[in-house]
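Protocol step 4 of 5: obtain the predicted structure for the target chain.
Materials: sequence only (see below). No template structures provided, no constraints applied. The aim of this step is simply to have a reference model before the mutagenesis design in step 5. Sequence pasted as it appears in the construct record:
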Amino acid sequence: MKNKRFNITGACFPDEHYMVDISERLEKIKSMIIPGDYFIINRGRQYGKTTTLNALENYLSSEYLVISMDLQLFSAADLNSESGFVSAFAREMYRNSIFRTSLNNEIKDTLKNMKTTGQDHVLADLFDVFCEICDGSEKPVVLMIDEIDNAAGTDIFIDFLSMIRGYYLRRNRLSFFRSVILAGVRDIRNLKSRIRSDADHQHNSPWNIAIDFNIDMSLSIDGIEGMLSEYKTDHKADMDTRALANLIYDYTSGYPVLVSHICKLIDEEIHSWDESGVIAAVNRILTMNDPLFESLSNKLEDYPEIKSSLYNVLTRGDTIPYNPDNEAANLLVRFGFVRVIDNSIVISNRIFETRLYNDMLTSSEVRETSISKAGFFDKPVFVKNGMLDVELIFERFIQHFHDIYGNEPEKFIEEDGRKCFLMYLRPIINGVGNYYIEAHTRDNRRMDIVIDYLGKRYVIELKIWRGQKYNEKGEKQILGYLETWHMKKGYMLTFSFSKNKETGIKTVEYGDKTIVEAIV
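Step 4 output (structure tokens):
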């Protein structure tokens, strides 16, 4: 058995970690390098940027000379002055023994001298070395710089990028890098470098030479299956790799660190390579204080208008058109928290969605609501023989709903119905189960909630009463869902605002399928 593990901290290495084969991604990146493109890999945190650069360095080594830098290795002092930056850059180039052996003695001596701090080196000295390296190399030279966010706000880095731009524009007369690749969360094409000091304050981007990087870095179902197959072989594990890959992808949409985290938890703690193991891992992730989720929360707190809009997406099925000039929307896209599909903003994956629901439903003002308190106090009665008693949940919810809102309907509007039920449900399943919303059903008419509780799945359709024909359509929809998931029983909760409504619970039989319907 190989001594490999699943990794969620830092870069992944094929000899040490189980990881998805990214050779197709590397080939696509190489196709950008061949014609001499300069670009930035902008992706969210823990999205595989460093892993990709490390693999790319090895992938290119037979045909290119690669200078690989990591700005995490630069101190604040290194980024505070021109001479400090030049010395640090030379130091990190000289440290790379594989790269150093490709240089002639004269360039090695120059780098050794430049890396000594306390000397008044300027950027022009560093670029002279770049040109000498490119001129003397038998292979085209590629510069890769990781973690650019560490320096993106400094004057020296802006000057550095401006000089790269200047040399790029003169490549027909100077020996220079075939390609320059930067990696980070921040899109530095938005950085501005002042090119005039007069009252006009004209600005220019130091990185407007870059082309767009549109390569998908999420993990595919096939890729996840390949990784699981390697694990299965190594451990002689009993698992359906295809089914697991599909399920993991359903929850993560291929967000790399979430995929690895699910697998790591199953491998090291849960030890069940099946649907129940994936559900248990997801539930564990949703309750963790994770830096990725903290980053999501912080960004939403910084932009309350986006937070409010996303909550309306979750509870009402609203659509947020994507505006490329909207700073907050672009920030959420860059961090990987949302995606743009058909020119609309959607939340990136099911785990992020559920985390946002949890945030919305466990805020201090929601916790203090009567319906949420009722769910918390009713919690002990809803589990019987390991099964969640959804019918009893309906019964108690209808009772509480009418006690709280029945005599004052002006307190309640249609769009709040689903949120109200989730407020009641959340404390009931908290810590034991989790839930998610089927995205394709989330609109102003219906919403399907899928609950995973103690290894069992329950589907509840929430909708607004719009007549008997619409209700029958809802029954057919949930029957289709039950058929797809090989389930025998489903649930419907309808909010009716008709004065002549008949509230209560009934059971409808369709062949071997049962639907429990409740009207509030």
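Step 4 remarks: DSSP finds 20 helices and 17 strands in the chain. Confidence is low (pLDDT under 50) at residues 192-202.
Proceed to step 5.
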